[in-house]
Write a structure and sequence with these properties.
With about 350 residues, this protein is an alpha/beta fold. Helices cover about 50% and strands about 10% of the residues. The strands form 2 sheets. A 6-stranded mixed β-sheet has the order 3-2-1-4-6-5, with helices on both faces. Helix 2 links the parallel strand 1 and strand 2. Helix 5 crosses helix 8.
């Protein structure tokens, strides 16, 4: 008798991602990013799971522990203590114990200090990813698995729609992502798996899970969307909203990727000999491409991508399309953009 269908589904999702990681490590023809080569002496590659102790990440941890050894991969785990709730250090210690019981190794708890930039949710996310990056670099991990589900993807699409942030926000979370030099570090095996399947997999395996009280706190936008917004949409439109939003994410991602590639090619052609952006050449670009060029330049100047919304880029764009002598535009990350002598100057103040 095989495993419960929920367990089989999560294991299959993880198995596919682990195969992708091995392909990226061993195929000399791959161009999918910069992954660390296997360590000398035949040491198997290491894949980490980011585990909060919730149902999604515990299901992911159990599937990784089951599948990795069969593929010759070492499986480890990291939990991040954000320090935002009383007893968070004890919670982190419990998660370490649970991951160790799954025979993950190495297993670590990393404490972080959450700032205030971009609001509490964005600040916690930034601190978490910084900690995961540091741990992955230090341990030489080939990949870090994240437990985002199809439901999380639907919520992300709706948040992007509400913010008016354009097609890139509607594309939600990528199955594979990472920062400069780590473009394929983060893998999300569960983007086609619903939250209920992950919770069911934990239940049938008797895995203890921790439900973050922040997920129920209406002070947080995502919590309100999860418990009020999405149920209201399903009541009004019928079942299938989550699946439709997830499909929208993939279709939007394909379009956004094509436009991003166009913008990357166009950027070199709109700069002068000193590398400054020329307003006349920017004006000649299609609006969707021009705004992407501007966004790339603003992020390169030091503005955090997660805090940069469509309204910010629209203000910068008006320096090109609606120039009336207006002053500098203040952007997140203490970056400012201003027009000087037919050039667009974007720099940190």
């Amino acid at each position: 008798m095989g495993p419960h269908p929920a367990v089989a589904a999560i294991r299959l999702a993880v198995r596919r991602v682990l195969h992708d990681v091995l392909t990226d490590l061993t195929d000399p023809r791959t161009t999918r990013g910069h992954l660390p080569a296997p360590a000398g002496g035949g040491t198997p590659p290491l894949v980490l799971v980011a585990c909060s102790g919730g149902a999604d990440s515990m299901a992911l941890a159990s599937a990784l522990a089951f599948e990795a050894p069969k593929l010759g991969i070492r499986a480890g785990g990291i939990t991040v203590d954000h320090g935002l709730q009383p007893g968070s250090d004890q919670r982190a210690a419990e998660v370490v114990t649970r991951m160790t019981a799954l025979r993950l190794d190495p297993v670590e708890s990393v404490a972080v200090r959450v700032g205030r930039d971009g609001g509490p949710e964005a600040a916690a996310r930034d601190a978490r990813y910084a900690a995961l990056d540091e741990a992955a670099d230090r341990l030489g991990a080939a990949a870090v698995l994240l437990g985002h589900t199809r439901d999380d993807q639907a919520e992300t699409v709706l948040l992007g729609l509400a913010r008016g942030s354009g097609i890139r926000s509607l594309s939600g979370m990528a199955e594979v992502s990472g920062g400069p030099g780590r473009s394929h570090r983060y893998r999300r095996p569960f983007l086609q798996v619903d939250r209920q399947t992950a919770r069911k997999a934990c239940m049938v395996q008797s895995l203890a899970v921790w439900d973050d009280p922040h997920n129920l706190d209406p002070a947080y936008t995502r919590s309100r969307l999860r418990h009020e917004g999405l149920p209201a949409l399903e009541k009004a439109l019928g079942k299938g909203v989550v699946e439709a939003l997830a499909r929208t994410a993939q279709l939007s991602r394909d379009d956004a990727d094509a436009l991003d590639a166009w913008a990357a090619d166009a950027e070199t052609g709109v700069r002068d000999e000193d590398g400054r952006l020329e307003c006349a050449k920017l004006y000649a670009l299609p609006p969707a491409v021009r705004r992407r060029v501007l966004r790339r330049a603003v992020v390169a100047a030091g503005s955090p991508a997660g805090s940069l919304f469509a309204r910010h880029i629209e203000e910068v764009d008006r320096l090109i399309t609606g120039w009336r002598g207006q002053g500098a535009i203040n952007l997140p990350g203490r970056v400012e953009a201003q027009r000087q002598g037919g050039r667009l100057v974007i720099r940190q103040g």
